[in-house]
Amino acid sequence: MAVIETVPNVVFKTRVRDESIGGPNPFRWQERTTQELFAGKRVVVFSLPGAFTPTCSTSHLPRYEELYKDFQALGVDSVICVSVNDAFVMFQWGKQQNAENVFLLPDGNGEFTRKMGMLVDKANLGFGMRSWRYSMVVNDGKIEKMFVEPGFDDNCPTDPFEVSDADTMLAYLKSA
């Protein structure tokens, strides 16, 4: 696992609603860059193995969504959830989760996750390459603090969820 100081330069392929398109699928592709997402901002990022998976859906995303206003009160500009899933999956998961505050950022090719040093093989679960679970505070593109779950490894038989949770992040921000 590599330790890096700044978020990598990546272009994310996202889908955004565009009413000018009309029809039953009024969405268009929009590229979002790490520069656009992080420059001049303090951002909380958490990454997880996959949309619609148990821990991610019952605990990880919902608690960040629930504490969003607390993060804002501590000077956080946005909260971003990264997953190695495509834009369509992330959109449907966000709808199912009623995610209104956390920005669900698809890392469909795993490029951001790979450059972060967090890409792991989860072939043992039939997932292929996915993100290891972690969270971080990014301040103007620089990684201020990172919480990485223990046991980082390919085909890990467990999915630890001890330090990348929203409450650990909130405690850090309150103490910083």
TrEMBL record:
It comes from the Bacteria. InterPro entries: PRX5-like, Redoxin, Thioredoxin-like_sf, Thioredoxin_domain. The keyword Oxidoreductase applies. One of its GO terms (cellular component) is cytoplasm. Gene3D superfamilies: Glutaredoxin. It catalyses: a hydroperoxide + 2 glutathione = an alcohol + glutathione disulfide + H2O. Residues 1-176 form the Thioredoxin domain. The active site is at C56 (cysteine sulfenic acid (-soh) intermediate). Its EC number is 1.11.1.27. Keywords: Antioxidant, Oxidoreductase, Peroxidase, Redox-active center. One of its GO terms (biological process) is hydrogen peroxide catabolic process. Pfam families: Redoxin. GO terms for molecular function: thioredoxin peroxidase activity. Belongs to the peroxiredoxin family. Prx5 subfamily. This is Glutathione-dependent peroxiredoxin. It comes from Anabaena cylindrica (strain ATCC 27899 / PCC 7122).
